[in-house]
Specification:
6-stranded mixed beta sheet; single chain; 4-stranded antiparallel beta sheet; Rossmann fold; elongated; 21 helices
């Protein structure tokens, strides 16, 4: 509830005005039956037509004021509910973008999507409905009860006898509906995940003729969601008929009792008609309050899921402890950014010291990894799928914190470097990177404000300028969503140009040249060697030809280092590297022979 008050507070005055308008409209509604009773019982018998018209005009005026203020208040309720939901959605999105990778793994992307969409929608409906009926319903209920008790206490006692049953119905529905709605949202998370996977992998699904299988997967989760929705619907829908039944039974009792009182002369027909009008107002008020409780059940369940994200503790904060320098880096007193361009390879910049890490805390995905890179040196990392290559990238960018050991950059522990400074050191091409539906220039610039000359220069280094010039519009040529109008090699070259545009201190290429032919790959490595001599490069690759010229090569297997050294040293000392070399170079020679 505290989180809700935080978003209500800025709209407090606006909401009070809305509630005042609702109060005024409700009072007009309560006044009309009393005027009607006065006309029937007191004025009609006297035959004073002018009094009938005058009081009838007052009734019409009350009705006009009620309709006008209700419409205005309803619009204001939607405005304030929309504003509160907009801010809530903004804060939720901001929080999600600030979550650590480990926290995001626990929440899952599909759940984050449904919390940002359907959950915030339910909260919006709750806020709007409470403002629209939250005052009107209780006032009509309370006011109607007070007036009827003053008008005809005997008849009001019949009505009052029905209230405990209605309260019991509302309590039971609320108690059982909130857990069901919470479970419904979790199943919705599953459906969003399945849908995401299908949309993302639609080409693979069609290529492997797995459309029927994926349809069955979707049907299964869709059926599960439908069942839980039916269950939630059965619980919530029971409140309306049950409440109506109780109130209609009470109405029947009121009519019978009223007829008996009229026959005895203890009350007049006008009072009975007014009483029935009040009874209808009370009936509608009770049904409105029941709908509020149903909507609040959905809204509170969704708000609880949203609050789980907003209350996530801030993980992976920048440490304030002094960054103890490494012995061999004692002379490196400044950050990597302050090292002069001509300092060459003499300045140590990066070190992994006995690093171990696990994504799930059960088994090490990296185990006791150590290496050191000086400024301008290059490291090639090779290994089988799942050996931990991309995990090193995740740790370097501090998407995750190490479990054991430490990472040092420029003589500073990585957890003491502020995130903007840390991330600005790197240029990175991820294994599963993406392109926007925008121009070539916008994809390379990525909102960093580079000039077209800088962007074209980066494209030239990445071997992308030639095919860019061939496109209609050159740098202004449009790229489709996820780069679907580009080949795999063209996509990779655009993304490499993006990473080179900022002339980073540390360049990470995570399997970034897998779609490039050998000639283009060789030209790219030559450009990097000529124009980025002082950039420390980490190249993760499946091809030995992409890393054999690196100063150091790290061979991984199941998260462990099984070889470290130069290309020549590993050919002599590492059996796994030797086997990869023989397989790849042999295949390449066979291919060359076939072409000849």
């Amino acid at each position: 509830m505290k989180i809700l008050l935080r978003y209500i507070r800025p709209y407090g005055a606006f909401m009070l005005l809305t509630l005042f308008l609702k109060f005024a409209a409700s009072m007009m509604d309560l006044l009309i039956p009393s005027l009607l009773a006065k006309i029937i019982d007191d004025i009609v018998p006297t035959g004073e037509v002018s009094q009938i018209f005058w009081r009838g005009g007052v009734m019409i005026g009350c009705a006009v004021i009620s309709v006008t203020t209700n419409v205005r208040a309803n619009r204001m309720a939607e405005v304030s509910a929309g504003g509160m939901t907009r801010q809530l959605r903004h804060d939720l999105f901001t929080k999600i973008t600030c979550l650590s990778a480990r926290q995001m793994d626990e929440i899952t992307v599909s759940s984050a999507v449904s919390r940002l969409t359907s959950d915030t929608y339910h909260v919006n409906r709750m806020l709007a409905r409470v403002q629209r009926l939250g005052v009107r319903g209780p006032i009509l209920l309370t006011g109607g009860m007070l007036i009827t008790m003053t008008m005809e206490p005997k008849l009001a006692s019949v009505l009052a006898a029905a209230l405990p049953f209605i309260i019991l119905i509302v309590w039971v529905v609320t108690k059982f509906s909130i857990p069901v709605y919470a479970r419904q949202q979790k199943i919705l998370d599953k459906m969003v995940r399945v849908l995401q996977e299908n949309i993302t992998g639609v080409r693979v699904i069609r290529a492997l003729s797995r459309t029927d299988y994926e349809r069955e997967r979707f049907d299964e989760v869709n059926e599960e969601l439908a069942k839980i929705e039916q269950k939630a619907g059965r619980i919530s829908s029971a409140s309306g008929p049950a409440t109506t039944l109780v109130l209609n039974l009470g109405l029947t009792a009121v009519i019978i009792a009223g007829a008996y009182l009229v026959q005895k002369g203890e009350t007049g027909p006008g009072a009975i008609i007014a009483f029935l009008s009040y009874f209808i107002l009370i009936l509608n008020a009770m049904l409105g309050i029941t709908r509020i409780f149903v909507m609040c059940s959905k809204g509170m369940a969704s708000l609880g899921r949203i609050n789980e994200v907003l209350e996530e503790p801030e993980a992976m904060q920048v440490s304030t402890r002094p960054a103890v320098e490494l012995p061999e880096q004692a002379e490196a007193q400044t950050s990597p950014h302050s090292v002069e361009e001509g300092s060459g390879k003499n300045s140590p910049i990066l070190e992994f010291r006995d690093v171990s890490f696990s994504y799930n805390g059960k088994g090490d995905h990296l185990s006791h990894i150590s290496f050191t890179l000086k400024r301008g040196e290059s490291l090639g990392i090779i290994g089988a799928t799942g050996s931990g290559k991309s995990t090193i990238v995740n740790l370097l960018l501090r998407f995750y914190d190490v479990d054991e050991g430490s990472i040092w950059i420029g003589g500073r522990r990585i957890d003491t470097i502020p995130y903007p400074e840390l991330r600005s050191m790197f240029g990175v091409v991820f294994q599963n990177d993406y392109l926007m539906a925008a121009s070539v220039e916008e994809n390379i610039d990525f909102f960093r404000g580079f000039s077209r000359e800088q962007i074209r220069e980066a494209a030239g280094y990445a071997q992308a300028e030639a095919f860019i010039r061939e496109k209609e519009g050159d740098m202004d040529a449009r790229i489709a969503v996820r780069g679907n109008n580009l080949s795999g090699g063209q996509k990779q070259r655009i993304m490499i140009a993006r990473s080179l545009a900022a002339k980073p201190e540390i360049l990470i290429l995570d399997d970034a040249s897998s779609a490039l032919d050998y000639r283009t790959d060789a030209k790219l490595r030559k450009e990097l060697g000529q124009h980025f001599r002082n950039t420390t490069t980490i190249n993760i690759a499946q091809r030995i030809s992409s890393i054999q010229g690196a100063d150091h090569i790290l061979v991984l297997e199941d998260g462990r280092c099984i070889g470290y050294g130069t290309h020549g040293e590993l050919l002599q000392s590492c059996a796994a590297y030797q086997m990869i070399y023989e397989l790849q170079m042999g295949q390449r020679e066979e291919a060359s022979g076939d072409e000849r």
